[in-house]
Amino acid sequence: MSPEFIERASSVLGVTAAWLAVATALVGGLAWYCADRTSTFKDAELKKFQQQSGVAIASAVADAANANAKAATANERAAGLEKDAAEARLELEQLKENQRPRTITAEMEQSFVGLLRNVLPKGPITVICLSDLQEANRFAKRIRETLDSAGYNDDVNRGVKNKFGLILNTGNNSDDIALCYRPNRRVPYGAKVQDAFEYIGIHMNGVEDSQNVLGLLDNELAIVVISRSLFEPASNR
């Protein structure tokens, strides 16, 4: 090979190498550009996704909170309705109880007598009925019979004294029965009798007859039965 040929070949190879270097640089630059654009696109898409996800999550949280609030309101309303229903059932049971005729069963009388068998002193107790209704008079008669069985006979006022028309404040006693006595004349055995009636389920308030509406003697003790006319059927009047 001639020196001229070698020189020309070297020149061509140098130019080719230079262009290859330029091409390599261009390709690298293009790759870097594409990679950078791809990365930027990915970052933008990721940011967009995060924003959309944040909005969706916030909306879901708000919907859940709203649903919880509605559920709480519904539960509160249901609890209120349940309470109203329970109160209505209680009122109905109370009404049914008030419609039942008052009485003293044989078992109740036996318990009453047993409680007071060895209790002393004993003395007379008057039974007064302030009603002309059958239910009240029957109940007063059973009280009289129960007292007689326990030894609290009233030999002066046998049976039940009826004083229909008198008005006596019994202290808002729901059972409409009162244990009455003259002021400052509480009879010693009265409390024991009152407790025994309470034991068998008959509540009666102790009432001072300060105006002597009943005409009691100083040491006289009386059990007063009052009408339950608000609850008594018309057929019993």
Taking the sheet with the most strands, its summary is: 5 strands, mixed
Q: What is the level 1 CATH name of the largest domain?
A: Alpha Beta
Strand order of the biggest β-sheet: 2-1-5-3-4
Beta-strand proportion: 5-15%
Give me the CATH fold name of the largest domain: Alpha-Beta Plaits
Q: Based on CA inertia axes, which overall geometry fits?
A: rod-shaped
Q: Determine the structural class based on helices, strands and strand pairing.
A: alpha/beta
Question: Would you give an account of this structure?
Answer:
The chain has 237 residues and is α/β, with parallel strands linked by helices. It folds into two domains: 1-99; 106-236, Alpha-Beta Plaits. Helix content is 57%, strand content 8%. It has a five-stranded mixed beta sheet.
Helix and strand layout, with pairings?
Elements: H1 3-99, H2 106-116, E1 126-129, H3 134-149, E2 161-162, E3 177-181, H4 190-199, E4 205-208, E5 222-225
Parallel strand pairs: 1-2, 1-5, 3-4
Antiparallel strand pairs: 3-5
Helix pairs in contact: 2-4
Quick rundown:
Helix content is 57%, strand content 8%. It has 237 residues and is α/β, with parallel strands linked by helices. It has 2 domains: 99 residues; 131 residues, Alpha-Beta Plaits.
List keywords for this structure.
disordered C terminus; Alpha-Beta Plaits; alpha/beta; 2 domains; 237 residues; five-stranded mixed beta sheet; 57% helix
